[in-house]
Design brief:
Structural class: alpha/beta
CATH topology of the largest domain: Nucleotidyltransferase, domain 5
Number of strands: 16
Shape: globular
Largest sheet: 5 strands, mixed
Bound molecules: zinc ion
Distance between the termini: 29 Å
Order of helices and strands: HEHHEEEEEHEEEEHEHEEEHHHHEHEH
Strand order of the largest sheet: 6-5-4-7-11
CATH architecture of the largest domain: 2-Layer Sandwich
Number of domains: 3
Oligomer: single chain
CATH class of the largest domain: Alpha Beta
Radius of gyration: 24 Å
Length: 414
Amino acid sequence: MAHLRKGNRDLIKEINRNLALNLIKSRGPISRTEIARLSGLSPATVSGITAEFIASGLVHEMAEGESTGGRRPVLLRLNHRAGFVVGIKLMEQAVISALTDLDAQVLHHRITPLTTVHSAGQPVNPEAILPVMIQAIEQTIAESQVERRRLLGIGVGLAGLVDGEAGICRYSPFFGWRDVPIAEPIAAHFGLPVYLENDVNTLTIAEQWFGYGHGVDHFVVVTVGRGVGAGIVANGQFYRGTLGGAGEVGHITLQQGGPLCDCGKRGCLEALASDPAIVREARAAIGRGEPTALAQVEPLTLEAVLAAAEAGDGLAQRLLADAGRWLGIGIAALVNILNPELIIVGGEGVCAGEWRFGPMREAVRAYAFNSLADRLKIVVEPSGDETWARGAACVVLGELFKPPVQRESLKVPA
Ligand SMILES: [Zn+2]
């Protein structure tokens, strides 16, 4: 819900500040004259606003620009080191954290293992996880040696259904959580705003911010690995859906009565195309006595299946191709609904290479409607752990540069 500020005068002032700040961020180095021309603000208003930015350290004056005959204009640029944010991704086994500047450059990142032992299907007490998240953030800040007062906010990404507005994890398949408050306890500890977002969404925001999706109005990020998910950008806007659940493509039913999914239903895309699905099918084939080198392999992992495929094992090659084909069918459905110009395939499963993604591409072309796939670009990009945490940091940065009517207040310290 948008927060309308008290007093229209303050609001207008803040909108003007935001307009000028975004121009400096996107067009800088830029002169005051140019800011006034592009924003429609009066030169006096621009002078006042930019003086405030300079006083707070958010904007720097820099070497003079091109002279057009008269006095050379002084140019302004955003000081990317005026503030910092921390992004974390909560994974099943670890917390990945990164500290970035205002340009989303990672200054420091770390991996903090989760030492809690939990068995599949058993809910994990959030009391066991939250302190590890807080400690991971503390250590990231300490190790980066950034002044604490320069921190602007914390972004948290995790798998599942996330209510960002309330800062609550509505459903986590990995931890068995329902309605667990995440943002509030972390915000209380650090005294900073905390933004919660689905992890695939954080990756999508990162792609829009500095990845392949930069400047692309219609694109979808599809992640494949432990699960299958999607993040959607339509008309240049990140698309969240009513409950923040847009993009749960992993749970569209592709095979009635098919294999059981983590969500409790059968035949979901995720149950057919994820890494665990490939391993499950390999086990089943070994159990049926199908000839394969995998019968001798322990532990049976996606990496083992990939290695066997590379070594010429027919079963391993077929299982990767089957999973890729199911993924392609799921992506074709996305193409028919959203007609994107770009699909970015990321996530840990991307290591499985062309054995999986060749058949995926073929299936997208085969199953997309008419010519919708003709000009579609598909990029397969391995995303390192750090990228996910950087994405969570981008959620905070996105808030900083958002128009004031839509955001909670984030202040840059003087
Ligand atoms: Zn499912």
